[in-house]
Amino acid sequence: MIKNEIVALRALEPSDVDILYQWENDTHLWNVSNTLAPFSKYQLQQYIKHSHLDIYQTQQLRLMIEHAGNNEVVGMVDLFDFEPFHHRGGIGIMIHDKWRGEGLAFEALQLFVGYLFGHLGLHQVYATVGEDNEASVNLFQKSGFELTGRRKEWCRRGGLYADELFFQKINRR
Q1: Sheet holding 2-3, edge to edge
Q2: CB distance 8 to 66 below 8 Å
Q3: Among 50, 109, 131, 162, which is 20 to 30 Å from 153 by CA?
């Protein structure tokens, strides 16, 4: 477990299937996760069952975020597009509505990036964020990510298109 006094990051457990089922099938989150169809409990059980596989094999890692004060699951953080040769990967983070605005995403992101740079030896991480997602834009900027690009009209939101921002954080140590 990776933790500080505010949050803890832990591996997926079989008991997480219900909360994953709820979050992965929440259509309000689909714009930020690029999800197009619902997940079944069986699919999520299989995902959890295979989540112990080596990151170099799966090229991804998902950890659950717990509130350190009461051990309640408040969100999740992902490494995806893990590229071991180039020492880079993408990051996604989600804090459930009930817990937003309490600084938990910032704490979890600091822990996760520290783990990725320190333990996995990544050189850089990136995140893509819709320009209309103010909370995430602010989170990544506050966390020391640099805005390095913009994809024009990249994401469809109903009948409109929004730009997607590209953030990078490079480990200069």
Answers
A1: 2-3, 7-10, 61-67, 73-83, 88-95, 124-130, 160-170, 146-157
A2: yes
A3: 109
Tell me which DSSP letter residue 67 carries. E
Q: How far is CA 123 from the centre of its chain?
A: 18
Question: Do residues 165 and 131 lie in contact, with contact meaning Cβ atoms separated by under 8 Å?
Answer: yes
Closest by CA to 51, choosing from 30, 78, 23, 27, is 78
Rounded to 5 degrees, what angle do the CA atoms 1, 91, 116 make? 45
Structure tokens at 172: 């200069």
User: Which candidate, 83, 93, 78, places its Cα nearest to that of 129?
Assistant: 93
Amino acid identity of residue 142, one-letter, is K
Q: How many Cβ atoms from other residues are within 10 Å of residue 55's Cβ?
A: 13
pTM: 0.86
